[in-house]
Each structure stands twice: as structure tokens, then as C-alpha cells.
């Protein structure tokens, strides 16, 4: 085993600016594609077992101190497609990190274990009998400890969380502090722009430096274009190193008998489709779900300052079980730029008044248990995210909006803004049905965002009806693994990062 | 090989088939999208508006966006910096558009053209830039509640304008928004987390 060389700050990353030759040829025991939740964990687990690990990340390496706390600039610097990744009809932004550390760098730190009723569905419907609560518990325990996951303390529940909690208590709804992977939260409210002081326990400051301490090598600006096989068995990847001005710095090949795809639920299936691999079932890219989310804003009589304090404080899980609605509500802080995108208060005077009163707004994020109706496609030139909220899920979305409105009103809000394309304001309970029932499941009618793409290479026991085994290996290609949210057979209602960490840990242990 | 067999467009877009075929709908997206590209850090937001030159938007596009900005953000009445004479909102959009891929830039231009020229009987088929304040507002509201395409286009243009106004730090004090705080507050860095115990 190599000598452990942990460094106290930053990462040693091979970047496009370091490239001096036209072609780079590398060899390893394992090549990991992607450096987010799945890739970083897998890299660390295998490196600490003495494997020679190479991590390839398509995005740039942006050190924490370079984060700007400016959301618009962060979208450009840290997000996939510069924040513009959307579904085909353009009414659903799919926000994913595209940098070393992946989405873990730009998420809100929320950590839920996979709900047990979801695991039971997977066992029953997908033959994943191994994935029981008892089997996964030790993995959850371990990653939660590694990432300082804890229930928000009282000081981590900002004003917007406090009013929402009070409203939920008034309604008798179950409300709990969110669990987050953060150490000594700085309460800056800029989670979505990356944590400048390394308090968020993202992969950038945890598993990646740990993997590197055990000898893993990390390459940024390196997009894998193809997975290579020999005799039907994984043998490595081909990649392109691209400078930040878009020019090609070098081509790269990595020979490795184990290939782990952890590029996320949009990019991983694209790579498999490009490579023409692991698609006996025809399900690569299919089965896409994403927790289409809305941010329902409410205006309060007293100042809230939704940008102050920890971004996410509490959640209402009263309706989490599908039998009760299949959605959760999380209080959500936001800044001015986000505010302009989340509601349609009208044009001119009403818009100005809405913004003028920005400090009186609080937000609720809805997450619904959507069905896996979407698909990631590759037409030879570009990817497409074909996803429309299904008619089966639309009632759930409306129930979530209604619950958010009711909760805002109970919390003392005087106005609630329905995040639709047209102006819809709720001022009393009597308005709720009126404003929400008339919503239509048409493109461009709801302002949706997804932070949780899932399901596009889903696990299952049957190789004709799934892409990957429960141990992460593809059914079709020995040595080729998937270790990201592509694995999830159904949407899991809750933020998926901890589920990915736990599954990736388990996959890596099985690989070794 | 490129697959051109894309899903058919919704029927109500039939009249806008050429635009849709070019992917406008997806690009209206880009609104939500690339519109956010970081331009404030370049040179736009401190320039005096009268000195501005536009490198990406054409003159008629500047006129349309300026007029929509006036209708959408009558800022002076609210004690906020002017959206046209203090904060160079349109210039910021111009800078952003420079960073769009060529196809996206073309689609944005197409969208602006359609928005300005969309003939509507109730507005006597006038261009948007020729409408009075009241009629212009009415037109925007009609688009906002219109068909799929119209809603998407309107949402896109409004998002472009709002983002490129409120990203300017001069708009923040009036709303008590603090902007970046870590350095102001002197929050210290923690560095990498220690290695887990075996």
C-alpha cells in the first residue's frame, strides 16, 4: 500500500493547463469517471485498499477560495452547461455540478437515508433482495460519520425555517430539522455557489483529498468519450482534455480492467450510449426521474431575509409516504437572482413590489415522488433530456403546492406566489383550490427545477429489465460499473446524496 | 450519425413550426440557462449607459429589450437605481449574449424578433416597441397567459432582464440583500477534513 500523504488544504489536480503532450496514455487498476458523490467515494475506497486509481472529471478544478458567492457567476463556473441544462421543452432546469467534486460542491447539504418503503419497493419490484435497511445501515452510518452529518442545531435554523416550523406545528404536521453534511456552518446562505470556507463536507474537501492521500490521481477538464472493451470485458476509456477556451489540449487513453461510471444520471447513460455498451435491456437512458421541484414563496408581515442564515433548516415529512401524498417540503433560503426566477408576480408595478418586498419572503421547496417517465437520449451530436411531468404525477405536484400554500398561510404569510408562468397569488385558504386546481399539466406552465436526476441505468436482478446488478456491475460488461444516482430504480422522494454515498461505498467494497 | 427523428411538436405550435424546428423552445430555456453566464464580472455593470456599445445585440434588438426593461422594471418609482440609465441591464444582456453558443445567440435574436413583431389583433398588429406603456404592459400579460410558446418566450425574456438588473450590486442595499459575506465577516477556512479513522 502506498504511503498516505494527506494535505491540509486543496487538491493536486492534473488540469488542461498542465498538459504538454498531444496524447496522454495512462494505466491503472481502476478508472473512475466523475468526481462527485459516487466517483469520489469509490476512488477513496479502492485507493485505500491499495488499488491504483485514476479519477477523470470533465469539469474544471475550482478551489474553494475561488468561489464567488455570486449565484449567476457560480452557475457559469460550477454547473453543467453553465446552469443551462434543461429538458427538451425548456421548462425544467436540471442543475448539476460540473467541476471537481460534482454536485456535492453546489448542493444544499441535505442528507436523508433512503426511506425504507423505497427499499422495499426495490426488493419487491426489481429483485434487489440484498438492499435491505439492515444491509445498508452500516454504510449509511459510516458515510454519515465521515461527512459530519448531523441534525441542524437551533442556530442552523434560520428565520425562514423558524416561521415554517411554527406553521407546521400549528397545523399538527410532522416537522423536523434537516440533517446536513457540514462542519461548523458559517451561516452565509451561499451553499449553491459552493462553500468558500470548506465547511460543507463536499467531495472537494473529504473523499477526494482522502483518495489522493492514498495515491489516487485526479484529472480535471477531461471528458471521457468512450468506454473501451476487449473480448466483451471492460478495459479502459478514451477521453479528451479540453482547455477552458474550448480548444483540445490532448487526447487521453486509460487502460484499466475496472471502469466505474459516476458521471451522474444524465452523463453516465450518454457515455454508455456513445460507447454502445450495457444496453441489452434497451433501458440505458430510460427510466429517468428527477424530483421536479418548485420553490413556493410566501410573503410575511415581518422581515424574513431569506438569504440570511443556513440555506436549509427544516422539512415537513407529513406527506412523505406515497399513501399520504408522496412529497416533502423543505424550507429554502434564496438570494435575489433566484427570487426573480421562482415566481410570476406580474409585470411592472406588481413585479417591482414583489422584489421591493424581497426581505419579507420565505420559500418552500417541494420534492415529489415522480414516476420514471423520462429518458436521456444521444443523437450523435448532443444529449436530450426528454421529460415532461406525467399526468400521473401532476396531482401529486398540485397537492404539494397546496400543502406549501397552506403551510405558508398557517405560518403567517399574507400572500403565496404559485410558481407558474402566469400570475397566481394566494391570499387565503379559500384561494388555494381556486389558484391551484386550474393549473394545467402543459409545458411552460410550472417553473420547475431538478437537482436530483436519477434512474437512467437502474439496478435490478433481471438483465433483460435492468442495466446494473445490485453490486453496481453492469449485467452485460464484466468490469464495468455504475456508481451514481443512475442506479436508483425509482425516485426516492428525498435528496439522494447520502444514498449515492452508501451505495458507492458498498459497490467499491464488493469490487475489491 | 445524427438522428433527425425528433419528437413532433405540439399541435398548437404549428404556426411557429420554423422556430420550433430550430430548437427555439429549447433555447428559450437557455434563458433559464446560459442567461446566467457571468457577465457582471466583466465590464458591463459600472459603465455609464450613454457610453455603452453593443457587440452582440443588434440595434433593433437593443430597442426591444430596452423597451421591455422599461415596462417590466419601472425602478425609479421604488427608490431603486434605474434599470436603463444607472444599471446597464441591456448591456449586461449584450455581454451575456456574447458568451452564448452561436446557435443560442441566433435563437435569442429570433425570439426577440418574434416578440416584437408578433401580430395580435387586439394590438392592431403594432410592434411591441410602438405600443404605449399601458398597451405594452397588456401585451406582456397576454403573452404571459398565452400558449406554450408564448409563455416560454415571455418567461425567458423576463428572466434575462430581471437577472441582469438584480445581479448588479447597486440594487442590493435598497433590498437589504447582503451579497457575498464570507470575507466581510472574516469566516475562516477549515481546509480539508481529516482522514477517517480506520
Automatic annotation (TrEMBL), chain A:
Keywords: FAD, Flavoprotein, Oxidoreductase. Residues 29-65 form the FAD-dependent oxidoreductase 2 FAD-binding domain. Residues 384-504 form the Glucose-methanol-choline oxidoreductase C-terminal domain. FAD binds at residues 107-110, 224, 496-497. InterPro entries: FAD-dep_OxRdtase_2_FAD-bd, FAD/NAD-bd_sf, GMC_OxRdtase, GMC_OxRdtase_N, GMC_OxRtase_C. This is FAD-dependent oxidoreductase. Residues 77-292 form the Glucose-methanol-choline oxidoreductase N-terminal domain. Its cofactor is FAD. One of its GO terms (molecular function) is oxidoreductase activity, acting on CH-OH group of donors. Belongs to the GMC oxidoreductase family. It comes from Alcanivorax sediminis.
From TrEMBL, chain B:
It comes from the Bacteria. This is Transcriptional initiation protein Tat. It comes from Alcanivorax sediminis.
Amino acid at each position: 500500500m502506498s504511503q498516505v500523504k494527506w494535505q491540509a488544504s486543496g487538491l493536486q489536480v492534473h488540469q488542461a493547463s498542465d498538459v504538454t503532450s498531444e496524447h496522454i496514455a495512462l494505466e491503472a487498476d481502476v478508472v473512475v469517471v466523475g468526481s462527485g458523490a459516487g466517483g469520489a467515494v469509490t476512488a477513496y475506497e479502492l485507493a485505500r485498499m491499495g488499488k491504483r486509481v485514476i479519477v477523470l472529471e470533465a469539469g474544471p478544478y475550482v478551489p474553494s477560495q475561488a468561489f464567488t458567492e455570486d449565484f449567476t457567476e457560480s452557475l457559469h463556473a460550477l454547473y453543467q452547461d453553465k446552469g443551462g441544462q434543461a429538458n427538451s421543452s425548456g421548462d425544467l432546469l436540471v442543475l448539476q455540478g460540473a467541476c471537481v467534486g460534482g454536485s456535492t460542491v453546489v448542493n444544499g447539504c441535505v442528507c436523508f437515508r433512503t426511506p425504507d418503503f423505497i427499499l422495499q419497493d426495490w426488493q419487491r419490484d426489481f429483485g434487489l433482495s440484498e438492499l435491505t435497511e439492515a444491509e445498508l445501515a452500516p454504510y449509511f452510518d459510516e458515510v454519515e460519520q465521515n461527512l459530519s452529518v448531523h441534525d441542524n442545531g437551533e442556530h442552523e435554523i434560520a428565520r425562514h425555517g423558524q416561521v415554517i416550523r411554527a406553521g407546521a406545528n400549528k397545523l399538527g404536521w410532522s416537522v423536523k430539522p434537516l440533517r446536513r453534511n457540514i462542519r461548523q456552518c458559517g451561516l452565509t446562505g451561499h451553499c449553491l455557489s459552493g462553500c468558500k470556507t470548506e465547511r460543507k463536507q463536499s467531495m472537494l474537501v473529504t473523499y477526494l483529498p482522502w483518495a489522493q492521500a492514498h495515491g489516487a490521481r485526479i484529472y480535471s477538464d477531461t471528458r471521457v468519450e468512450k468506454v473501451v472493451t476487449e473480448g466483451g470485458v471492460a478495459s479502459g476509456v478514451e477521453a479528451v482534455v479540453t482547455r477552458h477556451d474550448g480548444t483540445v489540449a490532448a487526447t487521453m487513453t486509460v487502460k484499466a480492467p475496472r471502469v466505474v461510471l459516476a458521471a451522474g444520471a444524465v452523463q453516465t447513460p450518454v457515455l454508455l450510449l456513445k460507447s454502445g455498451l450495457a444496453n441489452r435491456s434497451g433501458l440505458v437512458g430510460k427510466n429517468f426521474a428527477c424530483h421536479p421541484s418548485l420553490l413556493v414563496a410566501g410573503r410575511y408581515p415581518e422581515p424574513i431575509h431569506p438569504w440570511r442564515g443556513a440555506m436549509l433548516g427544516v422539512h415537513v415529512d407529513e406527506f412523505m409516504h406515497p399513501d399520504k401524498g408522496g412529497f416533502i417540503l423543505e424550507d429554502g433560503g434564496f438570494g435575489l437572482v433566484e427570487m426573480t426566477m421562482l415566481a410570476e408576480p406580474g409585470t411592472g408595478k406588481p413585479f417591482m413590489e414583489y422584489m421591493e418586498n424581497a426581505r419579507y419572503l420565505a420559500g418552500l421547496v417541494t420534492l415529489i415522488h415522480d414516476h420514471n417517465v423520462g429518458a436521456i437520449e444521444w443523437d450523435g451530436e448532443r444529449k436530450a433530456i426528454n421529460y415532461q411531468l406525467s399526468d400521473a404525477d401532476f396531482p401529486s405536484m398540485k397537492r404539494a403546492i397546496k400543502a406549501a400554500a397552506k403551510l405558508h398561510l398557517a405560518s403567517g404569510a399574507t400572500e403565496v406566489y404559485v410558481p407558474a408562468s402566469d400570475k397566481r397569488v394566494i391570499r387565503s385558504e379559500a384561494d388555494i383550490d381556486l389558484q391551484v386546481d386550474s393549473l394545467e399539466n402543459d409545458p411552460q406552465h410550472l417553473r420547475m427545477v431538478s437537482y436530483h436526476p436519477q434512474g437512467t441505468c437502474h439496478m435490478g436482478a433481471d438483465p433483460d429489465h435492468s442495466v446494473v446488478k445490485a453490486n453496481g456491475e453492469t449485467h452485460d460488461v464484466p468490469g464495468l460499473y455504475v456508481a451514481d444516482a443512475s442506479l436508483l430504480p425509482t425516485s426516492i422522494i428525498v435528496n439522494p446524496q447520502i444514498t449515492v454515498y452508501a451505495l458507492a461505498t458498498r459497490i467499491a467494497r464488493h469490487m475489491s | 450519425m445524427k438522428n433527425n427523428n425528433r419528437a413532433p411538436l405540439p399541435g398548437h405550435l404549428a404556426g411557429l413550426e420554423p422556430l420550433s424546428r430550430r430548437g427555439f423552445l429549447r433555447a428559450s430555456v437557455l434563458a433559464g440557462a446560459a442567461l446566467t453566464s457571468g457577465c457582471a464580472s466583466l465590464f458591463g455593470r459600472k459603465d455609464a449607459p450613454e457610453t455603452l456599445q453593443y457587440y452582440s445585440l443588434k440595434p433593433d434588438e437593443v430597442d426591444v429589450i430596452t423597451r421591455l426593461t422599461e415596462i417590466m422594471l419601472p425602478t425609479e418609482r421604488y427608490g431603486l437605481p434605474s434599470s436603463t440609465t444607472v444599471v446597464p441591464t441591456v448591456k449586461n444582456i449584450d455581454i451575456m449574449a456574447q458568451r452564448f453558443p452561436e446557435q443560442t445567440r441566433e435563437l435569442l435574436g429570433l425570439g426577440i424578433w418574434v416578440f416584437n413583431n408578433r401580430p395580435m389583433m387586439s394590438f392592431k398588429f403594432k410592434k411591441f416597441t410602438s405600443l404605449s406603456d399601458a398597451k405594452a404592459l397588456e401585451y406582456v400579460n397576454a403573452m404571459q397567459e398565452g400558449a406554450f410558446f408564448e409563455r416560454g418566450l415571455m418567461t425567458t425574456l423576463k428572466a434575462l432582464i430581471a437577472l441582469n438588473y438584480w445581479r448588479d450590486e447597486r440594487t442590493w442595499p435598497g433590498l437589504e440583500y447582503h451579497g457575498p459575506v464570507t470575507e466581510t465577516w472574516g469566516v475562516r477556512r477549515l481546509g480539508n477534513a481529516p482522514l477517517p479513522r480506520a
